[in-house]
Write a structure and sequence with these properties.
Length: 438
């Protein structure tokens, strides 16, 4: 939680804690003559992490490939050259963040849109602050209605494959589209009036996508289709489909290398421009994408899975589940269908303070008996709850680094009441339009 202030990568403490927790568990069990129970349990947790890690790794490799081919930079350049005003850019970046994040994940989308806001905003710090807050809210909201939009939604989808109760299949997530849209639109509509009605200075730089950029985007979409098809039609884990999709990229990388030395049409007129379009001496390398993956995020996720898995193994999460999902509902005299509602709303608030990954993984480890509507509710709250604070989501933390000094914790905090209004409105919308799922 203190990463912003002490600059200690969040993966370090959780990876250490994972080792300590399981060492203590193994020691206590061994002293009582149970030598293999801890080993079996930790192998189960490790297998669960491996599937998610490989899934995320393939997605990260594709995103890095698109970045290297300058697909995102070309979009940023195109938007900045259009001569839009600050208010128009506010809505354009918000809409793009909302609709790109379900495919490209909320962190990558937020970084891309922040680059647009920073380039267009110049010295107008007020626009940059409000624009980045809008991007964080939109990216998190957009990521909540797609299994590919956020790690938490991916975790719910993967877990539903193993579970028999309250499972959420791929298409069920899209029932959250309207609630997610409300979550973003209400704060955006209010923040709109605080945006200066001015026009930024136009930029002259033109960014050209490098050779293969558009085809890599198509291959990424094909990879997503493969992952979904493997699960829906062949009943295989989606990670197998993602790894198959990685092969598409590897074969295309081979083609780029082999065809790189051929004469490019641009070379006849402009050697420098041709080299820019073609790329580096090695035009594309899949393993470069592996090296540039967000390893801190992947290691943080490893630590979370094993820490929470350890706490679940020795019974703490069972106690927490009984308190949150049974006793709270009974104390408020709620019906059995709605008894989990208070706990699921609190999960979203906690995700803003702690982090949505450990909170959601704890819920999935508890595996309370809930209806589809309640599973979608906790997916929504964990996904969008982090928008209430700048440190509540990976997108917010990343943008504080990218727009250092302009997008800050306290700058975001001033707009927290407005974002909370959208949070509770999205919950109400979900419970209204998806009432049949409860």
């Amino acid at each position: 939680m203190a990463e912003e202030f002490i600059h200690l990568r969040k993966s370090k403490p959780v990876v250490l804690a994972a080792g300590v927790i399981w060492a203590l568990i193994a020691y206590v069990y061994a002293t009582h003559g149970f030598n293999h129970e801890a080993e079996i349990a930790v192998r189960h947790n490790l297998l669960e992490y491996t599937g998610l890690m490989l899934f995320l790794l393939v997605a990260m490799i594709y995103i890095n490939a698109m970045q290297k081919r300058q697909a995102f930079e070309a979009l940023r350049s195109w938007l900045c050259k259009k001569g839009y005003g600050f208010r128009q850019l506010f809505w354009i970046t918000g809409v793009l963040a909302f609709f790109i994040s379900p495919i490209a994940d909320n962190l990558t989308t937020a970084l891309l849109m922040c680059a647009v806001v920073m380039a267009a905003g110049g010295d107008n710090n007020k626009f940059i602050l409000i624009g980045t807050i809008n991007i964080v809210v939109a990216a998190n909201a957009g990521g909540a209605f797609s299994p590919f939009g956020d790690i938490t939604t991916l975790m719910v989808w993967q877990k539903s494959i193993e579970a028999s109760n309250g499972s959420v299949d791929f298409w069920s997530f899209f029932a959250l589209f309207v609630p997610s849209l409300v979550n973003w639109l209400i704060p955006a509509a209010i923040m709109h009036f605080a945006i200066p009605n001015e026009f930024p200075d136009s930029e002259d730089d033109v960014v050209i996508m490098k050779r293969g950029a558009k085809r890599i985007i198509v291959l990424f979409i094909c990879t997503i289709i493969t992952a979904v098809s493997f699960h829906n039609f062949l009943h295989l884990p989606p990670v197998i489909g993602m790894l198959t999709g990685l092969a598409y990229l590897k074969f295309f990388g081979y083609y780029l290398k082999k065809s790189h030395t051929k004469v490019h049409p641009l070379a006849v007129h402009d050697d420098k421009k041709a080299q820019h379009v073609l790329g580096d001496v090695v035009p594309f390398d899949v393993f470069d994408g592996v090296a540039r993956a967000e390893w801190d995020t992947l290691l943080f996720f490893y630590g979370v899975v094993l820490c929470v898995g350890g706490l679940g193994f020795i019974g703490y999460l069972g106690l927490a589940s009984e308190l949150m999902y049974t006793e709270w509902g009974a104390a408020l005299n709620l019906s059995p269908e709605m008894s989990a509602t208070p706990a699921n709303i609190v999960v979203g608030v906690l995700s803003a303070i702690v982090d949505n990954i450990p909170v959601m993984f704890a819920v999935l480890t508890m595996m309370p008996d809930m209806s589809l509507g309640q599973w979608l509710l906790v997916t929504l709250t964990a996904g969008v709850g982090g928008s209430m604070l700048s440190i509540g989501s990976a997108a917010g933390v990343a943008l504080m680094g990218q727009a250092r000094g302009k997008y800050t914790f306290f700058g975001h905090l001033k707009w927290t009441p407005v974002i909370m209004l959208g949070y509770f409105a999205s919950i109400a919308m979900h419970m209204w339009i998806n009432a049949s799922l409860f």
